[in-house]
Write a structure and sequence with these properties.
The complex is a heterodimer. Helices cover 76% and strands 0% of the residues of chain A. Chain A is built from 15 helices and no strands. Chain B folds into two domains: 7-63, no CATH class; 75-285, MetI-like fold (Orthogonal Bundle), CATH 1.10.3720.10. Helix content of chain B is 77%, strand content 0%. In chain B, helix 8 (148-172) runs antiparallel to helix 11 (202-218), helix 9 packs antiparallel against helix 10 and helix 11 packs across helix 14. Classes of the chains: A mainly alpha, B mainly alpha. Chains A and B meet through helix 3, helix 6, helix 7, helix 8 and helix 10 of A and helix 2, helix 5, helix 6, helix 7 and helix 8 of B.
Chain lengths: 322, 286
């Protein structure tokens, strides 16, 4: 502390040529700190901060192809884009679809990952190792690659899933196109998303569960609690902070799913497959309505923010009451 | 213990539970890994076993012909080269910037330090899809669209926060006394850093660089939007366009997918631990 206040005073007092090299060697810690973060601050301000501001600005302008190529300033239209979106019934459909899709993905991910974490805890060492290796392999798969693989698994003509389901008595899956029906199509996409999301959640939950003292569960068992009661009354309350984290992260990720839908539909998602991320993108780059796309993106971020704040406050409050 | 009448029913339970858990574990493992297995199997299958109405679940005649078709498809070399250039540029720049910032956070006290840490953690939560439109317009106005450098710039934004946070932990783990001792022995601050801190945070540098490599190797939308020339495509963009351009040559497609995914799986296995803790650390603070 005192060094940092001395250094500038010295520098101000000793102007003569002598102390120049010495002063460089004795930079105040504060100054070194600022110098070290400078490059990062410049990059993040340029590629994160400025675009965020620009996104908000864009959403109250009307930027089209013409302004983009002529370089003319885009006209300011206030909340016009928002009025346009909010009066569009299709937008509400997209929001509803996105919420339902996210809820299904997050619920499935959490339930399956919890089951996996419990299985990992109860299983033998070799089995736990096997599961860990499998989970890491799945986790590492690039989204684009896994979507292409699932498209091959669910291929209408030579897909292994159609063959497998077709083995059931009385089911004819010859040439069955899973994407022809929106529900089954979203079922496949949900499977891709959940499959990719399980490893992180399961490994994180397992790390948490293995911290829960076995004595607690044994004590509950001695007191006559069954497996379900032990999980919901003993394990889950201890793990609640971890559940809050993985739930918030899963919602943030699943609410803006893009790659899986985009690649599964071959880069041309039909209107009934559009969820918010895809919708905003198609609006901006498909029909060059950049401002409308920006307004949709802003609405997406605001929705996510509202959810995150609400959910975290809620779970904090629950924690206090308990 | 064993003489009690209540023990027999209690004792077998953990054993029976363990066997049941093992069975479930094996079944789940097989189900979960199947898509990966199917990808690799398809990539090595000979042509007459590929498109059959009754699938072959293993092959006795593995072949590399699918790989050679993928490699000789137009622009594979370009895509591979571009991906390597982008991934390594992002990695090196991110590594240098993140190390500097991590040292600043872990070793120095300055005004605004807490705000900086907070910003780093919050920035991780900003959805990439929300930033595509302004990023595209911004890079367009400074003539960086359709250039690999523009893509590297955007990837930095998404790799830096995680890298800084992870490296911070490693730098903070090196006792400051070690550095001070070196400086007492006559090292300058820089020498102490290079001789003492740098070797000790090496595992952290490996973890962060692999993370940056994987992220920029896998990324799809930004590359798709920013790089319009076919010669400028990265591997994921090439792979997706391969489907539409060649109908459904699943053999070659899965060979391409295997080539893209394999290095990622190997590298990811090395750093998996840090990714899990890094992601949740961000959430706790944010």
């Amino acid at each position: 502390m005192s060094a940092s206040t001395q250094a500038p005073a010295q520098a101000a007092g000793a102007a003569p040529p002598g102390p120049a090299p010495r002063r460089r060697r004795r930079l105040a810690p504060k100054t070194i700190g600022y110098l070290l973060i400078l490059p990062t601050v410049v990059v993040l301000a340029g590629v994160q901060g400025y675009p965020l501001v620009k996104l908000a600005l864009l959403s109250v302008q009307d930027l089209t192809q013409r302004e983009l190529f002529s370089g003319l300033p885009a006209p300011f239209i206030g909340l016009g884009n928002y009025a346009k979106i909010l009066s569009d019934p299709e937008f509400f459909l997209v929001v509803l679809r996105t919420v339902a899709f996210t809820a299904a993905n997050v619920a499935l991910t959490l339930v399956l990952a919890t089951v996996l974490a419990l299985v990992m805890r109860a299983a033998s060492r070799w089995c736990r190792l096997l599961l860990t290796v499998v989970l890491i392999c799945v986790w590492a798969m690039p989204q684009v690659v896994s979507t292409l693989v699932f498209n091959w698994l669910f291929d209408y003509e030579f897909g292994v899933v159609n063959w497998l389901v077709g083995r059931l008595p009385g089911v004819d899956m010859n040439g069955h196109d899973w994407y022809a029906n929106t529900i089954s199509g979203f079922g496949v996409i949900t499977m891709i998303v959940v499959w990719g999301a399980i490893p992180f959640v399961a490994i994180t939950l397992y790390a948490g569960i293995s911290q829960v003292p076995k004595e607690l569960e044994e004590a509950a068992r001695v007191d006559g609690a069954n497996g379900r009661q032990i999980f919901f009354r003993v394990t889950y309350p201890i793990l609640r902070p971890i559940y809050t984290i993985v739930t918030v992260l899963s919602v943030i990720w699943d609410f803006q799913v893009f790659n899986q839908v985009w690649v599964a539909r071959g880069g041309r998602p039909e209107p009934q497959y559009q969820i918010l991320g895809v919708y905003s993108f198609v609006r901006a780059f498909g029909v060059n309505e950049y401002s409308l796309g920006a307004a949709i993106a802003v609405v997406t971020v605001v929705l996510l923010l509202v959810f995150t704040v609400f959910y975290i406050r809620q779970s904090l409050r629950q924690g206090e009451i308990d | 213990m064993t003489s009690h009448t209540s023990t027999p029913p209690r004792r077998p339970r953990p054993g029976g539970g363990r066997i049941a858990a093992n069975v479930v574990g094996v079944v789940v493992s097989v189900l979960m890994i199947f898509p990966v297995y199917w990808m690799v199997l398809t990539a090595f299958k000979p042509g007459d076993e590929l498109m059959t109405y009754t699938p072959h679940f293993a092959t006795l005649h593995p072949t590399l012909s699918n790989f050679s078709r993928a490699i000789h498809a137009p622009h594979f070399g370009d895509a591979l080269g571009n991906s390597v250039i982008i991934a390594f540029s992002t990695m090196i720049i991110a590594l240098v910037l993140a190390l500097l910032a991590a040292v600043a956070i872990a070793r120095f006290r300055w005004y605004g330090r807490r705000a900086f840490i907070f910003a780093i953690l919050v920035v991780q939560m900003v959805p990439m899809s929300a930033l595509i439109i302004p990023l595209y317009l911004m890079l367009n106005s400074i003539d960086q669209v359709n250039k690999l450098s523009g893509v590297v710039l955007t990837y930095l934004a998404f790799v830096l926060p995680f890298s800084i946070w992870t490296l911070r932990g490693f730098v903070a783990g090196v006792p400051a006394e070690l550095e001070e001792a070196a400086m007492v022995d006559g090292c300058t601050r820089l020498q102490a850093f290079f001789r003492i801190v740098l070797p000790l945070v090496f595992p952290g540098l490996v973890a962060t660089s692999i993370y940056a490599l994987i992220q920029s190797w896998n990324e799809y939308i930004m590359a798709y939007v920013l790089l319009s020339d076919q010669q400028k495509e990265t591997l994921p963009v090439w792979l997706v366009s391969f489907v539409s351009a060649h109908g459904v040559d699943y053999g070659a497609l899965m060979a391409g997918a295997t080539m893209m995914a394999l290095p990622v799986v190997v590298f990811f296995a090395i750093i998996q631990r840090h990714v899990a803790s890094g992601l949740t650390a961000g959430a706790v603070k944010g």
